[in-house]
Design goal:
187 residues; alpha+beta; 7 helices; 8 strands; disordered N terminus
């Protein structure tokens, strides 16, 4: 019997190998399609998360307590990850300091936490170019209904500018991070 997951995984790896952009970015060497074991956390960590830091170049999201890392997650970004988001549809993840200001348990993706992009400065920059800065930038899990294909998303940039993690990871972030928490998104 044909193992669909094995065939699909092989196709994903082959498509990455054929992509000059993926090779240039070193994604093939860094891609890890293994699903991490579900982590556990101490409820005391909830009060400790004072900010979220995203390092786009590292593809990492860090939950911070002061200067100490409380948790770290592998992330996926927009299809065009380099540089600051300039306008709606550019598939970039913004850079700068924002706030995690509200959440949606019923989004198109498995849970989402909104990032306060665009700032006033983002609106001014986009307006100067006659562009719409966009919005709806979120930290979220997988697309609803795609849970069985989680391995296909791991290690790839696939969002329209959001920051994606696994469903188990967004459950943990959802619990540990409060609305109003600052987020710094760095190149």
């Amino acid at each position: 019997m044909l193992n669909f997951r094995a065939v699909f995984s092989a196709l994903v790896v082959l498509s990455l190998a054929a992509s000059p952009q993926a090779l240039a970015a070193g994604l093939l060497a860094k891609a890890d399609t293994r699903m991490p074991a579900k982590t556990t956390y101490n409820a005391a960590d909830i009060q400790d998360v004072s900010k979220v830091v995203v390092r786009k170049g590292e593809r990492r999201l860090y939950l911070m307590s002061g200067d100490e890392v409380v948790r770290s997650y592998r992330i996926s970004l927009g299809d065009n990850p380099k540089g600051h988001k300039l306008y709606e549809g550019d598939e970039r993840t913004p850079e700068g300091t924002y706030t995690l200001d509200w959440r949606n348990a019923e989004s198109d993706f498995y849970k989402s936490i909104h990032i306060s992009y665009p700032s006033e400065r983002d609106r001014e920059l986009a307006s100067a170019w006659g562009l719409d800065p966009g919005g709806s930038i979120m930290i979220h899990g997988l697309p609803n209904g795609e849970e069985d294909m989680a391995f296909a998303y791991r290690g790839l940039d696939w969002t329209d500018g959001c920051i994606a993690v696994t469903n188990d990871e967004i459950d943990e972030i959802w619990t540990l991070v409060s609305n109003g928490t600052p987020i710094s998104i760095q190149p």
